[in-house]
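Human: I'm a chemist; would you kindly supply sequence and C-alpha cells for a protein?

Assistant:
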Amino acid sequence: MRGLTIVTFLMVMAWMMEVSYSGEVTGAGAAKLLVQHEYNVKALKQSGHKVLFGELTGAGKRMNLDRVKLVITKKKVFDLNKADHVQFKHPSAAKALVDVAHLEFGSQVVKASQIEALVVK
C-alpha cells in the first residue's frame, strides 16, 4: 500500500510539473519564434546579441532598456525600437526593465509580466 501511495504521489507531481511549465518559452521555443518573425538567430549571435530567458525575475530586470533589442512573449517577438510607447511604473525613476509597466506596439499592449525572453546587446 505504501508503494502505491508513493507511486501515485510521484505521478501527480510529474503531471503538475508538466502543466506548470507547458506555456514557458524555452531556448528552442525562442529560436523558433525568432525564425517565424524573420529574425536570423545566427546573425543576431554573430553581431553580439544574446537571448536571455525569464529576465523579469532574474538579474536582467535591472538591465538598462538601451541594451534591449527584442522582447519575446509566448507567441510573438517585438522590436523595442518600434514601440509606440513605453509606460513606466514611476516615470521619473525609469531606466531599467523592471520599471516598465507595459509596452505599446500599435494596438497591441505587452504587459511586463508577459515578457518571457529578451534579445540584448
